[in-house]
Amino acid sequence: MSSLRKFKRGTSSPLIREVARRQGVSEREVITEIEKAIKYGMNSKEPEAMAFWSQFNGRTPTVEEVVKVMVNKAQKEIK
User: What is the span of the domain harbouring residue 62?
Assistant: First the structure.
């Protein structure tokens, strides 16, 4: 899953679509919840969380960017 698209109106990655399908909600709802989690996580004082968010150089990342980083991390852990 190396090429996630931008989350424009009416489009999303297959991952977002699958999460929405499994949870019985819209893709927009999944994206909104991820956006909330990003804001919450960026305020964490936990060292691991601070290290994760530091890779975005102080700016709020997009949902696409966070999903991409997490997918890449998961793929590395599987190998």
Answer: 14-78
CA separation for the pair 5, 31 (Å, rounded):
13
The pLDDT tens digits for 40-73 are 999 999 999 999 999 999 999 999 899 889 888 8
Closest alpha carbon to 28 in 4, 5, 42, 11: 11
Number of domains in the chain: 1
pTM exceeds 0.90 for this model:
no
- Asked whether the beta carbons of 15 and 67 are under 8 A apart, the reply is yes
Confidence category of residue 12, pLDDT binned at 50, 70, 90: low
How far apart CA 31 and CA 64 sit, in angstroms, is 9
